[in-house]
């Protein structure tokens, strides 16, 4: 039950929904950047949504299946190809023993997720299978995947289901092209910024810089200026925190953020829009739109019910398949 | 217990106990964290304490209802309302052996020159102080320590080193600390401890916890080399 990594790709790592409960120790959450797509990959395979997946960035890996498997790929479209033929995303697909899965290049989004039926056999460290890249633990040997690595998955007889005749609408196509609207709630230090900067933040576009990574999305645009020079006492941060360093260029903190930070927070991206942020490639233009926390929570609860519905439907389909 | 409460997005509330770095404010942060951990409300996820603030993460999806933020806020107020007296926490004194010699004390002579002290005086000041652990952050197990004597303060290096070995003891401005893992960094390195500050596979993964008192004491290079290592990263 294993997959040979022939080529690691740009940045392929084992992640799950994050290492929760240890931020008080300074241990970052890590985990997938786009939790919606990662959950969906597992749910469509009738796995627990917390199972580990491969997060593949921009240039995907080249994988040889040493055992047959059923996989599901979601997220951004890195153009997956199975034995030379396009592989359908957002649905369970049977991969015969010996076949090769590769990715021909980025078409839409930024990150894709691969789940395998039964789940990857990865030891949990601090309750999670996520790779903590900087501290070098968790996931697969605490690092990104490299040529020659072998990933085990749990014992599961892979049935030749071909490509399932059901799945999700291919959501990758709905990802924005060059402009994205990202919704936010005012941050604790919103009022620290000048009236003009508050207006600019709401009205002007910011561009995603190429040095954005799992730690944060670095943006470039009109400088955001504080009313007066004052320093923030280091306080907790969260995924989606929009912090503004002294250079006035905002950064959206993502999965590998530090637990605390000392830069003022002008806003907080709503949780329901974080998967979208995670799929924005460099040079995308972002416009921020303020909404209320009530609305943000309503959207999040809506997403939760949607995932639950898909879970029920997928479980039913799998019962039919395995009958 | 007096504090302000505000949202940090749709899944975190931030409790603010003051606007300054002080031990008495930080003790409120820790007291609140202790109470919330002992009496978690439905949907509460995890707590992140800092100098004068405490973040409480929760899941609006698990909480459900009309407006989860309002529910979270009132749950937190209910839990913390009754809390008055500072409890005797289980904080401890942690003694940290440090070798202040070559090849580990990369910047101690520079620090001496900067501060106008001899190396012995630097070591003496560094080792005769009780340091209070405000919280852990920046890196796993990294303690933000308060109480360093101003005489040995020195700004960070103008360009950070690419690799600082785990266990390095440094000074940056009026802060002193220990690097738990190998990382790039700009601190002035004055020594190194053989103690492991972070071990992910251990039941108690961190050596020091918020509220603890840290004391450094000097060991020789021979003692350092002979130290029995724990599971190191």
TrEMBL record, chain A:
Keyword Hydrolase carried by entry: yes
Protein origin, superkingdom: Bacteria
Keywords assigned by UniProt, alphabetized: ATP-binding, Hydrolase, Nucleotide-binding
InterPro entries assigned to the protein according to its UniProt record, in alphabetical order: CT_A_B, Cyclophilin-like_dom_sf, PxpC
SMART domains referenced in this protein's UniProt entry, alphabetically: AHS2
Signal sequence range: none
Residue intervals of the Carboxyltransferase domain: 24-306
GO MF annotations, alphabetized: ATP binding; hydrolase activity
NCBIfam families, per the entry: urea_amlyse_rel
Name of the protein: Carboxyltransferase domain-containing protein
Species name: Fictibacillus aquaticus
TrEMBL record, chain B:
Pfam families referenced in this protein's UniProt entry, alphabetically: CT_C_D
Gene3D superfamilies: 3.30.1360.40, Cyclophilin-like
Presence of keyword Translocase: no
UniProt keyword Hydrolase present: yes
Single GO MF annotation: ATP binding
Domain Carboxyltransferase: 3-208
Annotated keywords: ATP-binding, Hydrolase, Nucleotide-binding
Name of the protein in question: Carboxyltransferase domain-containing protein
Organism: Fictibacillus aquaticus
